[in-house]
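Handoff note, outgoing to incoming analyst
You'll be picking up this chain. Sequence as last confirmed:
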Amino acid sequence: MNSRLLGIGMTSSRTRERMLRRLQEQGIADERVLQAMRKAPRHIFVDEALGSRAYEDSALPIGFGQTISRPYTVAKMTELVLAIQPRSVLEVGTGSGYQTAVLAQVMEQVYTVERILALQQRARERLAELGMRNVRYKHDDGQTGWPQHAPYDAILVAAASPEVPIPLLQQLAMHGRLIMPTGDATHQVLSLVVRTPEGFEQQTLSAASFVPLVHGVKS
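Most recent structure output, in case you need it:
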């Protein structure tokens, strides 16, 4: 087993527990989310040089101009998804694989799309080490989603766009939830979209700061 998977000693355990206490203080109350965050070793999803900072409440670089989201963001987006007891989720932007690792513990099936092949390959290796077998991967432009497996009970997008892409709305199940940051480089908000028989209802939840959602793939 990869030595990093075993953690970085008692320091890792203590800092992870501090992270969980901080999440509770920040309002994360769903015990399923807290347990998933406890079990997901965030330090293996960042470069070893940043391992000592893995459980800080901050975004960290993972290469290719991308970041791993701060723990609160991961927890909050997961909590919002779980509010409807979903079985399947489409994740747009696999990135480091950390959000994927949390989702895989609370979902029957996770479909995750990443446009940067090197990031996807790295995430697959880490998630395989953790024994997570309910994740399917696609290297593609995330704005088009993954129509072959639609509709999805929930869609979680880890990159910002001025508007929610139409293909993603079309792949959302009735009464399903889509959570993503909307806006531009200067102003973003976390948005929640619910599909109803009458159409799509969108509401703003909080301020956000994410990398942009861009077209195309990168090998």
